[in-house]
Amino acid sequence: MKTNFFKYLLILAMAFTTYSCADLEVENLNEPDAATALGSTDDVVSLAGGTFRAWFMAVQDYDGPGMAMATMADQSTCSWGNAGMKDMSSEPRIGWNNNVTYGNAVITLTFWNNSYSAISAVNDVLARFYDPDDPMELDTQAETDAIKAWSLFVSGVAHGYLGLIFDKAILINWDTDVNNLEYVDYTAIQAGALAMFDEALAILDAADDFTLPDGFILGQTITRDDLKQLVHSFYARLLAYTPRNAAQNDAVDWDAVKTHATAGLNGWDLAPVMDDVSWWNLLSTYLIYGGWARIDHRIINLMDVDYPSRWPSDNNWPAGVPDEASSDDGRLASDYQFLLSNNFIPSRGYYHFSHYRLSRYDAYLSTWTEPTPIFYEWENDMLLAEAYVRTNDIPAAVAILNDANGARKVRGGLADVAPGTTEAALDLIFYERDVEFPVTQTGTSFFDMRRRDMLQSGTPLHFPIPGGELEITQYPWYTIAGAPDGINISDGSWTGKDGLVSPEN
Asked: Band of the pLDDT at 318, cuts 50, 70, 90?
């Protein structure tokens, strides 16, 4: 079904012109066309330079879905009603309320709108370069290639995360006919995003060396080779994180994941530096700030198998309320802070309670001007390790896990491992992912739990097109709710290392 979005815009535009005189023509200088607005090379480069920040601010926003998804994945926990955290982690789980009047409707609509704002900006940039009548060229071919590849990368990332989070979205390339936009399934969105990555890589492979202007990713210098690594890493991410269940995960092209992760981040992390003016990270802030969300006991139990993986719903502790956990993994002490008491509201469910918060990024809470990693090299390494396991090369995966320069050894101080089975190797890899990457990027823990059938039964596996968008485009209203089916609603569960099951039997 084609959307009526532009019909809506036309109606809105007519409303703004109602009071004009019938025979008076006035040029609207506030709405120049793209060629006029982007008439100079400086205009184009400036617009391109802000697009990744626009996506970053959307995906890490307080008014985005990231905090709810962290609690839906039982990685973070919170009983506060903010940003959908309590509602979407309720036990038993509930579907998504897609009504425009719902207080937390903003978390999907804001992310949707801001993502398409970033896409619109890069499309304006690309249209100037590919204009058949007057294609723009920068001072050198390398500079032109840099901005083209960068814009395709940002569009691929923005589309890719729409495909990770929603069941449907709109694929909008720079040359898409905007009068014939359609909602398509998330698999089509991901195919389009990967095609953008392919185009970016083709440009980069043929380009001379370059360095992107300062500020494209604040605090980080990005060369041609760096940008290639980013494209490859996000390519591997989208391939691995798109599945909605374990069967789909088994069907992933893991050879392709291996290829792209091998060419991905090498020797550095994607970690924009916050300046508390134009760049800030509210996802990380509210998932770690004192009095807000805490780390779910599921994560602590991974490091200490004797520690309870969940707080009993009836608050009945046969052996007494647990004290601090202990672990051979040094990250328990360095990254996680034990708290003596809970400040959540018992009537909202004891299952929200936890004695731990993530303290790893407390420096950011102090200065607000620290790097905030959203893609660690170690995450890329774990994608590569998983791809090795799933293509029957467990020794190669073990070599990564035992890498003396990897986070498992450097930060965890853990002994070498020699897992002999696929299950044991994957368990170690997902252990690393759960312990090392909390609150870094919206959805990472959610995507991991989703593709392993470990989200609690009744948890939505993705969000519907936001109700506010449906209302604008006059697309039939729907939501993601109902009986577990493993396609839209999880029919899975998880069991802690202590044998406790979620949802509770």
From this structure: confident
Strands, DSSP E only, in 132-176? 168-170
Cα gap 84→67, rounded to integer Å: 8
Distance in angstroms (rounded) separating the CA atoms of residues 92 and 503: 7
Length, in residues, of the chain:
505
| Tokens 């004891």 found at | 350
Helix (H) or strand (E) holding 126: helix 106-129
DSSP states of 241-272: H--SSHHHHHTS-HHHHHHHHHTS--S--B-P
Q: What domains can you pick out in the chain, each with its CATH number?
A: 5-282+437-502 (1.25.40.390)
Burial 316-349 (b: 16+ CB within 10 A, else e): eeeeeebeebebebebbeebbbeeeebebeeeeb
Spatial distance between the Cα atoms of 222 and 203, rounded to a whole number of angstroms: 16
CA distances (Å), 167 to each of 116, 401, 462, in order?
16, 34, 6
In the chain, DSSP finds a helix count (H) and a strand count (E) of 22, 8
pLDDT at 35: 58
Asked if 74 and 293 touch (Cβ cutoff 8 Å), the reply is no
- In whole angstroms, what is the distance from residue 4 CA to residue 166 CA? 20
* Residue 346, token pair as written in the block: 């018992």
- Sheet bearing 294-295, strands edge to edge: 76-77, 294-295, 356-358, 336-338
Q: Is it the case that residue 19 has pLDDT exceeding 70?
A: no
Q: What is the pTM of this model?
A: 0.93
Residue 432 makes CB contacts below 8 A (sequence gap 6+) with 378, 382, 401, 407, 408
